[in-house]
Amino acid sequence: MSKIKQVEAIFISDVHLGSKGSNAKQLLEMFKQYEPKYLFIVGDFIDGWLLKKRHYWTQDFTNVIRKILSYTKKGTKVIYITGNHDEFLRQYSLNDFGENIVICNEYDWNGYYITHGDLYDGVIKLKWLAHLGSIGYELAIYIDRIMKKFGYKH
Q: Pick from 21, 9, 145: which is nearest to 85 by CA?
């Protein structure tokens, strides 16, 4: 069994829990290898756009959330920087999720400015175009899965 490695910070983005293309199982395996002081989730972690259209939630998605919550119990500070797909979280205040979880649009940490970037993306402001792109992404994931079934490798 490998030893858990202590690290200063983990940065992740674009996990898209709620999407069939999400690799939650691989993310969970990575989480099991590290114990961070800080976990930065830099947008689009939960895909609210897809979840609004249809319910798709697996046990792996739940396990990822549970692992993150277990980090907070051990003292890891989780900074969840919202993105366009999880913008529904922007309505919550900084203290709604406990002392070790912060939800914000941007964050300044050790001299680094961290943001998902959707606030500066003109396409995102055109909601219909952004949703069209989301549909295209979902279609690409579907085609990729079919190709893998036929043995195509990247």
A: 21
The amino acid sitting at 89 is: L
H helix or E strand, kind and range, residue 6: strand 5-12
Query: Which tens digit of pLDDT belongs to each residue from 29-54?
Result: 999 999 999 999 998 898 887 788 88
| Whole-prediction pTM | 0.77
Strands (E), 21-104: 34-42, 77-81, 101-104
Q: What is the pLDDT of residues 113-125, one digit of tens each?
A: 999 877 766 555 5
Q: If you write DSSP's letter for every residue of 88-145 in order, what string do you get?
A: GGGGS-TTTT-TTEEEESEEEETTEEEE-SGGG-HHHHSHHHHHHHHHHHHHHHHHHH
| The length of the chain, given as a count of residues | 154
What is the spatial distance between Cα 27 and Cα 43, in angstroms, rounded to a whole number?
15
